[in-house]
Design brief:
With 184 residues, the chain is an alpha/beta fold. The protein contains five helices and five strands; from the N terminus they run E-E-E-H-E-H-E-H-H-H. The protein has a five-stranded mixed β-sheet with strand order 3-2-1-4-5. The longest helix is centred in the C-terminal third of the chain and has 31 residues.
């Protein structure tokens, strides 16, 4: 599976492409940052982010786009810019018919380090280790984008099983009960 991870931001939008499957070694295909000038007006910055993400999608052809789920922050203007950049990433993927997966920061930290409370240094260190890199990608937004892609690769199989079970339950189908467990 090839995943484009997007760590949304209005000034620096981290992007990283990882190839792999759960339980197998992972490989970084590319990593970088889409930058916009702080002095530009927000609509123009969003266009620049769109062009940057479209270029990454054209060049790397991911199967899935994993985006950090925006959560409430203390600075409202920061969260607004992050949410807008996130929406642009989702829009770019949706226009191409690519699935979009949203992962919270704590999900990403837990998937990559084993702890949902890990700090940026721990996440970066594990990204380097898991992808067998010589150094941590800079800036941190780039490393975070790789962590998002890793998280999705590892979590996707379980999420897909859960989605199939929910869909079956909605259709009135009950999956078989494992031996030794009563369905009560």
């Amino acid at each position: 599976m090839r995943v484009l991870g997007v760590d949304p931001g209005l000034t620096r939008c981290g992007v990283g492409v990882v190839d792999g499957t759960a339980g197998s070694p992972l490989r970084m295909a590319a990593v970088g940052v889409v930058r916009t000038p702080a002095e530009e007006e927000t609509p123009r910055r969003l266009v620049l982010i769109e062009r940057g993400i479209d270029a990454w999608l054209d060049e790397h052809r991911p199967e899935v786009v994993a985006v950090e789920r925006v959560f409430s922050q203390h600075n409202v203007s920061t969260v607004m810019g992050t949410a807008q950049a996130s929406a642009v990433a989702m829009l770019c993927a949706a226009r191409r018919g690519l699935p979009v997966a949203l992962h919270t920061p704590s999900e990403v930290k837990a998937a990559v380090t084993g702890s949902g409370r890990a700090d940026k240094a721990q996440v970066g260190s594990m990204v380097v280790r898991l992808l067998r890199l010589d150094a941590m990608p800079k800036p941190a937004d780039a490393a975070d984008a790789l962590a998002l892609a890793i998280c999705h690769i590892w979590r996707a199989p379980a999420q897909n099983r859960l989605q199939r079970a929910v869909a079956a339950a909605r259709r009135g189908l009950v999956p078989p009960t494992p031996k030794g467990i009563s369905p009560s």
